Amino acid sequence: MAQSSRLRALQHKNADDVVVTMAIRSPLCKAKKGGFRDMRSDELLTEMFRQAIKHSGINSEIIEDICVGTVLPKGSTYEARSAALAAGIPESVPIQTINRFCSSGLVAVTTIASEIRAGQIDVGLAVGVESMSWNPDVGPDAASDEIKACGPAADSLQPMGWTSENVAREFSVSREDMDEFAARSFQRAEAADKAGYFAKEIVPFTAYQKDTATGARKRVTISKDDGIRYGTTKDTLLKVKSAFPQWPPSRTTGGNASQITDGAAAVLLMTRRKADELGLRVLAKYANVAISEDVDLFEINEAFASMYVHCVRKLGLDPEKVNVNGGAIAFGARQIATGLNELERRGGKVLVTSMCMGTGMGAAALFLGEFQ
Fold it and tell me: Are strands 261-271 and 350-357 parallel, antiparallel or unpaired?
């Protein structure tokens, strides 16, 4: 299909374009059981900063702002600032944190891109990080009587499992459809892992693990995701019990919802002018509009299969373009690094990444691949 005039206009290169010059991620590991189970969240973030500096191709002194998307740490800005300093980023580089639940990492990228587009900075680093081992999600505190009396306000405090069941019921998403999709997510992730597709986006992480004999912590290198369940089929998933029997129709299970995960990702953004000045390879241009038929790949956060199935149906998306290497059901969210890596491998041009989040919100972003 010929590219639309709108897409050709978006692809026009200007010195003030916001571009991505690095998109990397850690391995994604099962919380409580995986490779990062004994690693503090501030240690995970410190290592992500170290790897970002190592792979950025720049002196960290020229970074003008850092935005860290993270949800669970109680002192997130303290963790972010101290981790940056411990990783060797100068005191002169400011940092901020943002919490928008599942989309926090994506919104961190959008925040940095907006600062660059507004002319506030030329170079910025966006990071997403979460350790569900170290900071388990305990949910909201008890609500006030005023909030309880307001239907939408009270609903916004409900857990996402409740939302998943509502979606399944209201939009007639069957358990069979959910498990069929979930199985495909695992199978795609397994195939991509075996083919080595993730190797380019994953940077090996130095982690700490406890010695089972002595209890002492030792340093190990983690270089692969450990949450992909090889050999998963629809039939095996249909045997898994409901995770939320208290909320009819109770179709969500531990097999068709995202696992709890420890991991991190980093994206370096700057003006095209600055990338050219520094001699850096441009991976993609950050944009905010597109024509749907021009999209080569979609990365949708698979928090729950009910949501994914409904989105694909409602939007009329081609399943062969959506989460082609699996998604959060298989191993967690890391969508920009994975999406751009696969876009380059396919020789594609347009990536759309979107994420649901708690409290009834969502977020999306568009990237135009260049891979100079």
Answer: unpaired
57: left (phi over 0), alpha (psi -120 to 50) or beta: left
- Contact, 62 vs 259, CB < 8 A? no
Q: Can you tell me which residue has the tokens 């095209």?
A: 272
- Beta-carbon contacts of 46 under 8 Å, excluding residues fewer than 6 positions away, are 83, 86, 87
Cα distance between residue 365 and residue 18, in whole Å = 13
Determine the 3-state secondary structure of 185 from DSSP: helix
Q: How far apart are CA 327 and CA 123, in angstroms?
A: 29
Instruction: Report how far residue 286's alpha carbon sits from residue 290's, in angstroms, rounded to the nearest whole number.
Output: 11
pLDDT, one tens digit per residue, over 99-126 is 999 899 999 999 999 999 999 999 999 9
Residues, the chain: 372
Burial call 303-312: b when 16+ CB within 10 Å, e when fewer? bbbbbbbbbb
* Residues whose CB is less than 8 angstroms from the CB of residue 289 and which lie 6 or more positions away in sequence, other chains included: 6, 10, 366
Q: Are 272 and 19 in contact (CB under 8 A)?
A: yes
Helix, strand, or coil here: 263? strand
Question: 10 Å Cβ neighbour count for 250?
Answer: 17
Beta bridge partners of 324: 326
Q: What tens digit of pLDDT does each residue of 191-235 get?
A: 999 999 999 999 999 999 999 899 999 999 999 999 899 999 999
pLDDT value of residue 1: 44
Residues 360/164, Cβ–Cβ less than 8 Å: no
What residue type is 264 in one-letter code? A
For the stretch 45-93, pLDDT in tens is 999 999 999 999 999 999 999 999 999 999 999 999 999 999 999 999 9
Residue 333, token pair as written in the block: 């969210």
Distance separating alpha carbons of residues 9 and 294, to the nearest angstrom: 13
The distance of Cα 325 from the centroid of its chain, to the nearest Å, equals 14
